[in-house]
């Protein structure tokens, strides 16, 4: 059992996500907490009052009246939706949520700049990374044929990811309109509640189940390599993961304005055989220096490693600011099994 998880008799761990129930973030967090935090998701239709009064307890093994050993109790996790990312981070800082679960990068759409900015500005810590392959489904009302559809709704990025399929579909049925939605779960909700049964959505299977919609197309609607990285974030730091989980450390730095400073900053890691697996820059956006760049570095090392500690000491010579955003383990969803494994294991 994860030592950082709440006890089975405690109230559910409140994990904030952006969107509404049925969002991809909710599906990913439920899978992550079930496999890596030993916590079972509470159904979104469960009354909040009953959840707080009596946490859901399940077992890791089937119960049997004749079994001499009682099942191992597991705690629970409650996915809490927020309309906007800044509201999610507000909830973490105010104590209304225990964790957050946010997308940080997609292999098709790229990074989520707002998340990097909030991680740097807010008093939170990255405590885990989870990598998931997305599966977009065309969902709608049972019995409706594709030729009967009048609208397909989804998030703009998902419409773009499925553009090859949609181009073929619209060539056959040009009367279908594509309508942008704030997120995929909202698109599913709109399809379920629209007066016409001819509105469909590109969304997740979870959204279909929650809104009692049917899977209209079973074949993949997009390239199979579309993957999203999520961060678990916490208002308090968690213990540094053990070395066998190959921890990563993410930094946000601003550099002194002099020739070769970026090269010198990166040499702090290179000269100690530390790999910088990712580097990204964004304008700071402040009133005084709006175009001063913030560099986000992902270093394949633990904060407990002496070499990284020395690198950070050396880095102070070249930066005007440095914030450690988190030190954490990374997991990826195992293909086809709905379970996960740490990278490299």
UniProtKB/TrEMBL annotation:
BP GO terms, sorted: L-phenylalanine biosynthetic process
Domain ACT: 250-329
Gene Ontology molecular function terms on file: prephenate dehydratase activity
Catalytic EC class: lyase
Record-listed E.C. numbers: 4.2.1.51
Entry keyword Amino-acid biosynthesis: yes
Keywords associated with the record: Amino-acid biosynthesis, Aromatic amino acid biosynthesis, Lyase, Phenylalanine biosynthesis
Transmembrane domains' residue ranges: none
Residue spans of biased composition, Low complexity class: 53-64
Keyword Methyltransferase tagged: no
PANTHER family named in the record: PREPHENATE DEHYDRATASE P PROTEIN (PTHR21022), PREPHENATE DEHYDRATASE-RELATED (PTHR21022:SF19)
Protein name: prephenate dehydratase
């Amino acid at each position: 059992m994860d030592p950082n998880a709440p006890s089975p008799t405690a109230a559910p761990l409140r994990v904030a996500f952006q969107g509404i129930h049925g969002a991809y973030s909710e599906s990913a967090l439920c899978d992550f907490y079930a496999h890596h935090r030993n916590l079972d998701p509470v159904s979104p239709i469960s009354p909040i009052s009953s959840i707080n009064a009596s946490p859901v307890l399940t077992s890791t093994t089937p119960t049997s009246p004749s079994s001499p050993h009682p099942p191992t109790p597991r705690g629970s996790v409650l996915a809490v939706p927020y309309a906007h990312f800044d509201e999610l981070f507000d909830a973490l800082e105010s104590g209304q949520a225990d964790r957050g679960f946010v997308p940080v990068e997609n292999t098709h759409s790229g990074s989520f700049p707002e998340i990097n900015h909030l991680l740097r500005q807010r008093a939170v810590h990255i405590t885990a990374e989870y990598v998931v392959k997305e599966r977009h489904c065309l969902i709608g009302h049972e019995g409706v044929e594709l030729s009967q559809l009048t609208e397909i709704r989804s998030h703009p990025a998902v419409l773009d990811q499925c553009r090859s399929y949609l181009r073929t579909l619209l060539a056959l049925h040009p009367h279908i309109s594509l309508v942008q939605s704030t997120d995929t779960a909202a698109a599913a909700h709109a399809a379920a509640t629209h007066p016409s049964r001819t509105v469909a959505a590109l969304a997740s299977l979870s959204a279909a189940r929650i809104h009692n919609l049917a899977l209209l197309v079973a074949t993949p609607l997009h390239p199979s390599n579309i993957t999203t990285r999520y961060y678990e974030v916490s208002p308090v730091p968690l213990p540094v993961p053990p070395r066998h989980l190959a921890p990563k450390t993410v930094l946000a730095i601003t550099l002194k304005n002099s020739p070769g400073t970026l090269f010198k900053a990166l040499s702090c890691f290179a000269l100690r055989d530390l790999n910088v697996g990712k580097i990204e820059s964004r304008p700071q956006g402040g009133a005084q220096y709006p175009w001063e760049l913030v560099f986000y570095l992902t270093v394949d090392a633990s904060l407990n490693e002496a070499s990284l500690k020395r690198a950070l000491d050396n880095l102070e010579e070249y930066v005007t600011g440095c914030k450690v955003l988190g030190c954490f383990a990374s997991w990826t969803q195992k293909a086809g099994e709905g379970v996960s494994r740490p990278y490299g294991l």
